[in-house]
TrEMBL record:
The chain crosses the membrane at residues 12-33, 40-56, 76-94, 114-138, 202-225, 428-460, 472-491, 498-524, 530-549, 556-576, 596-616. It comes from the Archaea. Keywords: Membrane, Repeat, Transmembrane, Transmembrane helix, Transport. It is found in: Membrane. Pfam families: CitMHS, TrkA_C. It comes from Natronorubrum bangense JCM 10635. PROSITE patterns: RCK_C. This is Citrate transporter. It is a multi-pass membrane protein. GO terms for molecular function: monoatomic cation transmembrane transporter activity. Residues 233-317, 326-410 form the RCK C-terminal domain. Its main location: membrane. GO terms for cellular component: plasma membrane.
Length: 618
């Protein structure tokens, strides 16, 4: 294991703190603030970093060609290709079918349900990007919970965490692994122990991490997770929207007779949103603005308390009801199903203000309620700015929900009744994926080339349509990689990474090497909670490698510690996109992630560090 104490094998002299270092530290600090506060979308921040680094070229050393080199970097292109391949697998319905088969085994046993969730998620996440895997399995796991009379809150965080540990099984399990491999290859010029990773270079440790994580999630997590959402929850009651929904009838002689819904809405006020029109027991969910009203029609309206009071004295309409449950609001599932929509990572809704009328026109769904960052928005939902992970309670016809489940803007938190998957293409998609992995694993061609060849094969074979290539890519991840890669280069070339490494060595040099390795794991895990996992590895791998050399340790061990830690974001919903996807459907609070994630993070930190020491030495 390389010596028990982290005693320097060679004299370590303090690097001089230069103007170049100070400038790069300033850019890094700016990047951290922007990532944490999210004042700009993450992809826009990444582009801004490129601009700043190039403008400050005399100090950062980043010229225009180096500044945009992240777009042509092997890691960026490989991640792009792997996202497309994952999209191809998703189009076949293979992941959902695996989830459904595991669900049929689960029954009403919480341990079986958690076992099914973990087994359906972790192995698949070793070969597919875990973001679409979790997006596809959220409705499957929610249905497992409902059928087994279990709170979805008990299963959805384990779903997200299982996907994260599963990503550590192979090189292509997560974009973080691919980026870490690229940085390791670049640093290989200075550190002979570092190199580009092979497909299964760290699989033996990944298997141990998955097994330990799975045992924790199956046997411990459900004791720590509260039932935030009741089993088979009544959504109207759960979202507390009963007090904001009323039924009004168009009375005889009303000036609204023969008026369009849009015109009536304008007359009643901007806070009024017509969710349904009921005519002779015929329900029109999310009615169009051109829909004409007739005498006796009942309008189901979503508004606020003040507007409800105002409606009581409005000419032409009469309050006739106040639905307090799903059953009262939706008497016919064929007419309108009440369910949740989660705003996805690359949704066009991110950053937009909620306009129920426009939402109804575009999505053919009526908005009833909203969870923003996990918290219920009780009263006014109009004009609320939407973010990734926000959950909308909607009512929509089944065919609308089936259509929405195939779009990238939202995740429908229920399984579509009429799924349209290319199931006949599943064997071809699996064969292509196996070919990509095999070619890279056998070192016939690099993973970059085999992945791009796989993309072409997906299109030629009809697994993916050409226009679907772009929809499968999470472009904010691509831009993030392109922006942080030159930042990492500036950190190395300016000497800033070496300076930070000296500070680590001078303050922790008296500790055993194994403890210093563990400290890097913990620091990386904490930083990943505030910024993206890809930004974490870019900033910390150069520092970790330099620190390892400074204490006479194995740089590869420190690189692996940073890489594994960056892919385990368990302490909050912000650090990893899959945590955001389950935030709303699970009804979670921020503290729930910490409650179940902190023990898991601590457990895996010990297991991972000991595993690294055993397999590669420190």
């Amino acid at each position: 294991m390389g010596g028990s104490l982290a005693l320097a094998q060679q004299p370590v002299t303090q690097p001089a703190l230069t103007t170049e270092m100070l400038v790069v530290f300033g850019v890094v600090a700016f990047a951290l603030v922007m990532f944490v506060t999210e004042r700009l979308p993450i992809d826009v921040t990444a582009i801004l970093l490129i601009v700043i680094l190039v403008v400050l070229e005399p100090w950062t050393g980043i010229d225009p060609s180096t500044g945009i080199s992240g777009f042509a970097n092997d890691a960026t292109i490989t991640v792009l290709a792997m996202l497309i391949l994952s999209g191809g697998i998703a189009r076949t319905g293979l992941v959902q079918e695996l989830g459904r088969r595991m669900a049929s085994y689960a029954g009403d046993s919480i341990h079986k349900q958690l076992f099914a969730t973990v087994v359906a998620t972790s192995p698949v996440s070793g070969f597919l990007n875990n973001t679409p895997v979790v997006a596809l399995l959220v409705p499957v796991v929610t249905d497992v919970a409902n059928r087994g009379n279990t709170s979805p809150s008990k299963l959805l965080i384990p779903l997200s965490y299982a996907s994260q540990v599963g990503g550590m099984l192979t090189l292509i399990g997560t974009s973080t692994n691919i980026l870490a491999s690229d940085i390791s290859a670049r640093l290989g010029a200075d550190y002979p122990e570092l190199h580009r990773f092979s497909m299964f270079e760290f699989t033996q440790l990944g298997v141990i991490v998955v097994i330990v994580g799975a045992l924790y999630l199956i046997f411990v997590s459900h004791y720590l997770l509260p039932e935030r959402v009741p089993a088979r929850a009544d959504y109207v009651e759960e979202y507390d929207v009963g007090d904001y929904i009323v039924e009004v009838a168009v009375v005889p002689g009303s000036p609204h007779v023969d008026s369009r819904v849009g015109a009536v809405t304008e007359r009643l006020g901007p806070e009024i949103d017509v969710v349904q029109v009921v005519h002779d027991r015929d329900q029109s969910v999310a009615p169009r603005q051109e829909t004409r009203l007739r005498e006796g029609d009942v309008l189901v309206i979503r508004t606020n308390r003040d507007a409800i009071t105002m409606l009581e004295g409005t000419t032409g309409v009469e309050l006739v009801g106040n639905p307090q449950s799903d059953a009262e609001l939706s008497t016919d599932d064929e007419a309108g199903i009440i369910t949740e929509l989660v705003v996805s990572l690359d949704s066009r809704l991110v950053g937009e203000r909620l306009d129920p009328e426009a939402f109804r026109e575009e999505f053919n769904a009526a908005v009833l309620g909203l969870r923003h960052h996990g918290s219920l928005v009780s009263d006014r939902i109009i004009d609320r700015r939407l973010d990734v992970g926000d959950t909308l309670l909607v009512q929509a016809p089944p065919d609308t929900l089936d259509r929405l489940s195939r779009r990238d803007d939202v995740i429908v938190a229920r399984e579509p009744s009429l799924p349209e998957y290319r199931a006949d293409k599943a064997p071809i998609a699996v064969a292509i994926m196996i070919g990509v992995v095999a070619v890279a694993a056998l070192d016939i061609y690099p993973i970059l080339l085999s992945a791009l060849a796989g993309v072409v094969a997906m299109v030629v074979s009809g697994v993916l349509e050409p226009n679907e290539l772009y929809d499968a890519v999470e472009w904010d991840i691509i831009f993030l990689l392109a922006g942080v890669i030159p930042l990492g280069i500036a950190l190395e070339q300016s000497g800033a990474a070496a300076y930070l490494a000296f500070l680590v060595v001078s303050t922790a040099g008296f500790l055993p090497t194994l403890v210093v390795l563990w400290v890097f794991y913990i620091i990386t895990g904490l930083i990943t909670e505030m910024i993206s996992n890809n930004a974490s590895v870019v900033l910390l791998i150069p520092v970790a490698a330099a620190a390892a050399v400074g204490i006479g340790a194995n740089p590869l061990a420190f690189v692996f510690a940073v890489m594994f830690a960056a892919s385990t974001s368990f302490l909050g919903p912000i650090g990893y996109q899959t945590n955001l996807f389950v935030y709303g459907p699970g009804g979670y609070r921020f503290s729930d992630y910490f409650r179940v994630g902190a023990p898991l993070q601590l457990l895996l930190s010990v297991v991972t560090v000991l595993g690294i020491a055993f397999f590669w030495g420190v």
